[in-house]
Amino acid sequence: MDARVLEQRKSLALWLGLFALTWFFARFGASISEALGMEWLISYPKEWIIPLNDKVSALMKWLVEDVHFILFSFTDMTRALAWLIEQPYYFVRALLATGFEQGVGRRAVQIVPPLSWLTILAGVIALGHYAKDWFLAAIVGLSFAYLAIFGQWESAMVTLASVVVAVPIGVIGGLLLGILAYRHPRFDRIMTPVLDLMQTIPIFAYLVPILFMFGFGPVSALVATVIYAMPPMVRITAMALKAVDPEIKDFGVMSGCTRSQMTWRILVPSALSSLMVGVNQVIMLSLNMVIIASMIGAGGLGFDVLSSLRRLNIGGGFEAGIAIVILAIAIDRLSQAFAVRSSQIHPAPQGSNIFKRHPRSTLVALVLIVALIVGRFVPAFQTYPDEMTLTTGAFWSDGVKYLNINYFDVFEAVKIFFLTWFLLPIKRFFLNIPWPWFIVVITIIGWKFGGWKLALMNGVMTLFIASTGMWEKAMVTVYLCGASVIIASAIGIPLGVLAAINQRAGRVIGVVIDTLQTLPSFVYLIPVVMLFRIGDFTAMIAIVLYALVPAVRYAAHGVKSVSPDLIEAGIVSGCTKRQILTRIRLPLALPEILLGINQTIMLALSMLVITALVGTRDLGQEVYIALTKADTGRGLVAGFAIAFIAIMADRIINASAKNARIRFGLEAKND
Amino acid sequence: MTTQAKLVCKHLWKLYGNIPSQMMDSQYFPPTDNELEKFGVIGAVKHASLEIQDGEIFVIMGLSGSGKSTLVRLLSGLIEPSVGEIFIDGQDMLKMSEKELIEIRRHKMGMVFQHFALLPHLSVLQNVAFPLSIQGQSKSEAEGRALEVIELVGLKGREDYFPRELSGGQQQRVGIARSLAVEPELWFLDEPFSALDPLIRREMQDEFLRLQAMLKKTIVFITHDFDEAIRLADRIAIMKDGAIIQVATPEELVMNPASDYVGEFTKHISRAKVISAGSVMGNAKDGKGAEISQRAKIVDVAAQVVAANSPLKVVDENGTVIGSLDAKTVIDILVQQGG
Ligand SMILES: Nc1ncnc2c1ncn2[C@@H]1O[C@H](COP(=O)(O)OP(=O)(O)O)[C@@H](O)[C@H]1O
Ligand SMILES: [Mg+2]
Known about the structure:
The complex is a heterodimer.
Chain A: H1 2-36, H2 52-66, H3 74-98, E1 100-102, E2 109-112, H4 117-131, H5 134-149, H6 153-183, H7 185-200, H8 203-214, H9 218-243, H10 246-254, H11 259-270, H12 272-292, H13 300-311, H14 314-342, H15 354-357, H16 359-377, H17 379-382, H18 393-432, H19 435-467, H20 471-501, H21 503-518, H22 525-532, H23 536-560, H24 564-572, H25 577-611, H26 619-629, H27 632-663
Antiparallel strand pairs in A: 1-2
Helix pairs in contact in A: 1-18, 2-27, 3-6, 3-9, 4-5, 4-16, 5-14, 6-7, 6-9, 6-12, 6-13, 7-9, 8-9, 8-26, 8-27, 9-12, 10-11, 12-14, 13-14, 14-18, 18-20, 19-27, 20-21, 20-23, 20-25, 21-23, 22-23, 23-25, 24-25, 25-26, 25-27, 26-27
Chain B: E1 7-16, H1 33-38, E2 42-52, E3 57-62, H2 68-75, E4 83-88, E5 91-92, H3 98-107, E6 109-112, H4 124-134, H5 139-152, H6 168-180, E7 186-190, H7 198-215, E8 218-223, H8 226-232, E9 235-240, E10 243-248, H9 250-255, H10 260-267, H11 277-280, E11 288-293, H12 298-307, E12 312-315, E13 321-325, H13 327-334
Parallel strand pairs in B: 3-8, 3-9, 6-7, 7-8, 11-12
Antiparallel strand pairs in B: 1-2, 1-4, 4-5, 9-10, 12-13
């Protein structure tokens, strides 16, 4: 026991010492190095920068222009791929939004109109009823009706078309890769780190090379969407197949299944309900990405938001933003209902003929056909009439104007307060730390938490960031992300604890959190920009909103899953409610809370690039600039720098969560 | 032995863990228990040799973790042994190709699982028809046969139910029906009744004996319940820590346990139910009165013997007198002494 206390004191002393030194260097490092004539300590000298950007760009150029496989060139390959993706996309888009046209450009004439809004409305209502009940049907129906009435129909259908095409590709691709990973452990071992990387590299970083290969337009957007949305499907598939009851697997072998029978007749059907969770994930991520990918030509609602933001068109931004929210909620509810449905029993329909067996399908088909025919003759049933659309744009503009006129001082005061007392000091602190010292500190942290392997990884990664000339921007990233995570944790963890110990609060918080989670990251920017205009403070609020969810979720789960025996033991030994919370629940929930913070950091980093739109000067901005200039090298290098920060944070926090679990005896000490 | 045994395994070993390569060298093999422990290797099955005859119910009994499941998985080819040989109808199973194995599993083997292993998304009928449809039989053909076996296990009328709508006992009936659908010669049952309530368990045991009387399969039945083993077995193999410590008929086990360990199990068994007249009779052929069969269990003839004034005649299948049974012997067994 004594030895352990001593050990703890020692490491406490180490941390305090490190912090004091860091603070000292941040405060006086600049003047000292100036006095010594060693300015290179403070800002990484330009001459030392390794021109990795140019090399990557050159490699990319070579790939696109010069690489020839035996029969075809690299470009032929990307073109063929693009063609393959384009065909279903154009078809679905024509069906839902634009109609089928003949001819190109301005001379194009519509030969077949798209499905009328009434047809689609009837279709989704039927889907809602089929998936669950009339209540869901009503929710989905109202959502789509909203889109029509408030004039967002066409954009929403373009967005929907992208989702409809991207989701099957993502699901099938993810399923096949997941099966492969399940069957071949070696492939799994290669796949896991790739997936990790894919999920930590910010989306924008791979938008750049995709843009370079496929050009500006919907195909690039679709490719990016699929790449972004597929990893969770791969993971969930591999995990779900592993989790199939071993007896059922044995049964499969004993009935003489071949490998493919085993996969498709035993494993996949048995794992169906877990797989549907993956499908839901793919759908939601696709929607999020389709919105973001409007920057590279996906069009639709995302494009409307983007152009409104650029023009500071408050009303337009809000309208499109709310349409995104509504579409997201409708799609999410629908796909979750399908996931639940797939795990229930549905006896085969009985009836003498096909119409009696499927009364609903018959009815729906009838309604659809009627809607289709009526739509041909009555234009109002084909396209929702413009004169009947309502617009809320003016309402939002006026509202924001009112707030800005009457409460400008309040908003400004809040903003300035946070900037001067919170954001700027943190920023100054990080920017003034001499980079060699920071590398040393990060390496020591790695060594303390995860041994020499983590130390080495941290050292190499921070050195990469310095030597590619990203240091300053990386520090701004760390500062912005760090500040947001602090605020998000300060709000999120207490909320999570509250949700865990108070049932009613738990329900309310649950609904809010669920909704926050379905919203594409873009949406958070809109109201904040309108109120606080652009800058670091705005970015911080948007990041906090987006990254709050896991902090709440994990804290709630951690506090809730503390063993009831321990709590009873606490009550029996006379703890007050407060003591039970602070002495038993919180310490035991610590590992879980740490994991929540970890997720919060990941989300914050992925949101950074989006906040680059509001003028932050961090790595996100670097990627964004690279995107607008289609500068592959610059984008990828900055992307990797963000990914490295994410990976280091992830490994350090995971290691400390593990240490905490070992300390509380929740996990055995082994490696 | 004149007839060939149905299923034979010879010095079968299954080791788990990080096995040092030297351990498998012939000069060091087989490892002792101490060596296994020293290297952290788990000997799930150690040196198992068995001959299972056509048409017998062979029960493997042992406590949890003694290696029963591992042994039956070896015998059914679900896992490969570390060392050893397995013959099915004289064919070396370990030399078979994947294709041959699939054929054997499709037509010769059936297996019943402890937790039923029914496919949750299929109805009773579809579950039972599943192994047949895997073989490529048409839907009507497979479902026709499935209906027959469903009727055989007494589930007629529940074809369209889904597994979760059935009780545990009914689910295991589906499991049994499914394993019988392909008319296997070899029937493996790994603790098929352990997950059921005691009353249902007895009912299922009776059902099992009824089916076997009709079907005459070669059965490998796993259980951790000694009573169940005694009730069902033609022969029992007792396992402990991966090794088979005795193979015998229930009666021999009770009469001559090979070790104290086996004796612990047999101690609480009502011996009168296991021991037959033939194995405790006196050699004198001086019996009078009624004849009793040498195979009759003591419990069934006790009243008769005790009521008679003198020892009764014991006869073999042909009716020849081979010995006599007196009241003292019977009473001793009834109060569980001697023997
Ligand atoms: N796949 C495996 N990996 C490692 N050890 C195993 C494995 N399967 C079984 N064992 C070990 O082998 C021993 C026997 O297990 P098992 O055959 O399941 O016993 P039983 O069925 O008699 O309860 C146990 O100690 C078990 O832990
Ligand atoms: Mg077992």
